[in-house]
Design brief:
The protein has eleven helices and seven strands. The protein has 249 residues and is an alpha/beta fold. The chain has a seven-stranded mixed β-sheet, with helices on both faces. It is 41% helix and 14% strand. Helix 3 runs antiparallel to helix 4 and helix 6 runs parallel beside helix 10. It has one domain: HAD superfamily/HAD-like (Rossmann fold), CATH 3.40.50.1000.
Length: 249
C-alpha cells in the first residue's frame, strides 16, 4: 500500500516544459538563410529545393549548403550581429521563469550563431538562460578557413535525416512526460509537433498545420505567446488542452 504522501505526489500536476525553435522564431530572420544569401554559391538554392521536396533530409541539406559558404570569421560575425531578436523573447523567458516552466531551445541551426546572438550584452539574457539547454547543429571554422558542420542531436535515432532530431531531444529533456509546449515557424519544425501537447506556429509551420489539419495556436510575435501562457496559467494537462482548442478555433 502506498503512503499518503506518495499518493498526493502522484496527484500533483507536472510542470509544463516549453521548447523553442531559434531561426525565424527567436530571431526575426532565418540566420542560415541570411548566411547563404550573402556568402554561398547559388547552388544552395537547388539543394534547398531538394529538401523542400522531401528528397533530402535537413542534415544533408545543411552540410551541402554550408560547404558552399565562402566567408571569413569576421564576415560571418558581422552578418550574424545584424540579425534582430524578437523583442518578446525576454518577456517570454521571464514569464516561464516566474512560473517554473523549463525552457529549452532546439534548432537545426548552428550553435555558433545561436551563442553569438544570445550572448549580446545589450539583450541581458544571461540570467534568464541559465537553465536553458541549447540543442543545435555544430559549426566551426578550420585552420584553412573552411566552415565545418556536425550534428550531435542525434544522427543515429532520426529516421527523417534531420540536422537536429527535435522529437528525440524533447523526449530526452522531458523524461517525466510533462505537458510540453512547442513554438516554431518553419517546415523543419514539423516533426517536433509529434512530442508537443500545444503548438504555437507561424509562417511555414502554420501553413503546414493548416494543410495537414493539425491544431495549432497562431502567433506573430513572442509577446503574444507570453500573453497566451499567462491567460492559461496555472498550466496543467487539461488547461493546455483547453488553451490549444481555444486558440486554434
Amino acid at each position: 500500500m502506498k503512503a499518503k504522501g506518495e499518493l498526493m505526489l502522484e496527484q500533483e500536476e507536472k510542470r509544463p516544459m516549453l521548447f523553442m525553435d531559434f531561426d525565424g522564431t527567436i530571431t526575426r530572420r532565418d540566420v542560415i538563410d541570411v548566411i547563404l544569401e550573402n556568402y554561398a554559391d547559388e547552388r544552395w538554392l537547388e539543394i534547398e529545393k531538394q529538401w523542400r521536396a522531401g528528397r533530402l533530409g535537413s542534415r544533408d541539406c545543411l552540410r551541402a549548403q554550408m560547404a558552399l559558404v565562402r566567408a571569413t570569421r569576421r564576415e560571418l560575425d558581422d552578418l550574424i550581429d545584424s540579425i534582430q531578436v524578437d523583442e518578446g523573447f525576454a518577456l517570454l523567458l521571464e514569464i516561464c521563469a516566474r512560473h517554473e516552466i523549463a525552457t529549452h531551445i532546439i534548432s537545426d541551426g548552428f550553435d555558433y550563431c545561436i551563442g553569438r546572438i544570445l550572448e549580446r550584452p545589450q539583450l541581458q539574457l544571461e540570467s534568464l538562460l541559465r537553465h536553458t539547454r541549447i540543442c543545435a547543429s555544430h559549426l566551426e571554422i578550420d585552420d584553412h578557413g573552411w566552415w565545418r558542420t556536425s550534428f550531435p542531436f542525434f544522427q543515429q535515432t532520426c529516421a527523417h535525416g534531420c540536422a537536429t532530431c527535435k522529437p528525440a531531444v524533447m523526449r530526452l529533456l522531458n523524461r517525466e512526460d510533462a505537458p510540453s509546449i512547442f513554438v516554431g515557424d518553419g517546415l523543419s519544425d514539423r516533426y517536433a509537433m509529434e512530442s508537443a501537447s500545444l503548438v504555437f506556429a507561424k509562417n511555414g509551420l502554420a501553413a503546414y498545420c493548416r494543410a495537414q489539419g493539425i491544431e495549432y495556436a497562431p502567433f506573430d510575435e513572442l509577446d503574444e505567446v507570453a500573453a497566451y501562457l499567462v491567460a492559461g496559467l496555472p498550466l496543467d494537462s487539461s488547461s493546455i488542452s483547453n488553451l490549444a482548442e481555444a486558440l486554434s478555433a
